[in-house]
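Case study 2.
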Amino acid sequence: MQAPRFWYAPSSVASTLLLPLGAIYGCATARRVASGRPQAHDIPVICVGNINAGGTGKTPTVIALIQYFQSLGITPHVVSRGYGGSLNTVTQVDPVKHSADQTGDEPLLMAAFAPTWICPNRAAGITAASLAGADVVVLDDGHQDPSVVKDLSLVVVDAKRGFGNGRCIPAGPLREPVAAGIKRADAVIAIGSTAHQDQLIADHALPCAVVRAKVQPLQMGMDWSDGRYIAFAGIGYPEKFFDTLRGLGADLVATHALDDHQPLSRGLMQRLSADAQTHGAQLVTTEKDAVRLPRDFMGQVLALPVRLEFDDISALKSVLQPVLTRLAQSDRRSS
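Prediction:
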């Protein structure tokens, strides 16, 4: 589903009416976090999570961390629940063999960058990654999962939208109150413009480090202003993708904001293709959506790749230092 607009409005009747349910949701999260018995592992675990329900930039952050570790000669693996996928046992994602229906779209995308494991039980996934030779695990989501000891917990926030109206689901976008979630974080990854990052920091007394970053489109060697496009996206914040395309000069004759992780059925794609033909336009979508395309539509749709760029790589290195130190001291790394 798409996030209700009132989640990001200062106040609304709908949010006020749903406030008791939001309070119950927040309390349930607190009880779950407090009652967990976290399992430690023999390799470092970095959790990339969020407090908001989707649309924060978590997947680009995971990919950026993967590439950073790889640049240091460190072997990262990713562990994910595989949200939206049908497989429910520990499975290493194979982009050739598996489909998004089996693994979920995000793990299928991340598997192109590093070995990626899915399992409803994250601890079991981490064990599998360790046995397969991982030096470090990047945990995709799981900030509210108390089953795993995390060496580092990073909370990703879209600086423009911040924490919305500050209320828990369904009254607002939060999985738990901001103060409770940030208290367990080692750092906040604030993604967006400098002005929005400054506003986020001014609005919240964040008791942890803040690492600033921006999501940037990769250069594809094409002039986006030379053509007409119909854009569609089934992500947490579709408008961000549409704005990125407009910023590249793309003439968007239509946009389609789909539900987050929405299946791209053959019927839907046929309607979008017909619309594109009518307007003499090219279909374009996100990398995450592209992995959900029916195979015979993959050659008909452009995918715009984006990557996370840290404003100050030394700030990231400072946050990661405990993990880097543990890796340096590890017998496994020195053997």
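The chain has twelve helices and 13 strands.
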